C-alpha cells in the first residue's frame, strides 16, 4: 500500500533530491523553459510554484526564504524582478508541462516545463480568436473581390460599348 507516500522520491536520497530540484528550479527561472522527464517535471512543479508564489511579496523575509531554497543570487534577482512582475496578477499555475514523447535510450517520457507567462508563441495564439467559416470564402473577402471585379468589368466594357454604339448610330441613319 502507498500510505503516507505523498511525493515521488525519484530514486534519490533526500539531499540529492532537494539539490536536484533546486538546480532545476534555478534553470527554469533563468531559461524560462527546460526539457526533462515527466516525473522530474511534476516534482519540479510542486517545488517551484510555492517559491514563485512567495516572490509576489517582495519583502526581506520572502527573499531569505527563497534564497534558503535556491542559494543563487542571480536566480533570486530574476525571480523577484521580471518573473514577479509578470505573474503578479496570476492566482497560481505558473508552469506548464508539454509532453514531447519518449526518450530513445531508455524510453523515459520527455517533456518541456516552462513558465506560462514567458512563452511568446502561446501568448500570440491566445490573443487571436479564430473565426469559424461555413464556406471556403468569407463574406468579407467576397465583398472587396466582387467590387474590384465589377470595376474591372465596367472598365473593359465601357470602351467596347462606346465603339459599338458609334458605328451603330452612323449606320442607322444611312439605312433610313
TrEMBL record:
Q: Where is the composition biased (Basic and acidic residues)?
A: 167-176
Q: Where is the composition biased (Low complexity)?
A: 141-166
Q: Name one Pfam family in it.
A: Ribosomal_L17
Q: Does the keyword Ribosomal protein apply?
A: yes
> Would I find rRNA processing among this entry's keywords?
no
Where is the sequence biased in composition, kind Basic residues? 126-138
Q: Which GO terms describe its cellular component?
A: cytosolic large ribosomal subunit
Q: Where is the signal peptide?
A: none
**A single GO molecular function term of this UniProt record:** structural constituent of ribosome
Superkingdom of this protein's organism = Bacteria
Record InterPro entries: Ribosomal_bL17, Ribosomal_bL17_sf
Query: What keywords does the record list, in alphabetical order?
Result: Ribonucleoprotein, Ribosomal protein
Q: Which SUPFAM superfamilies match?
A: Prokaryotic ribosomal protein L17 (SSF64263)
Coiled coil: which residue ranges?
A: none
Q: How does it assemble?
A: Part of the 50S ribosomal subunit. Contacts protein L32.
Q: Which family, according to the similarity comment?
A: Belongs to the bacterial ribosomal protein bL17 family.
- Supply the PANTHER family for this chain: LARGE RIBOSOMAL SUBUNIT PROTEIN BL17M, RIBOSOMAL PROTEIN L17
HAMAP family linked: Ribosomal_bL17
**Which protein is depicted?**
Large ribosomal subunit protein bL17
Per the UniProt record, the source organism is: Marseilla massiliensis
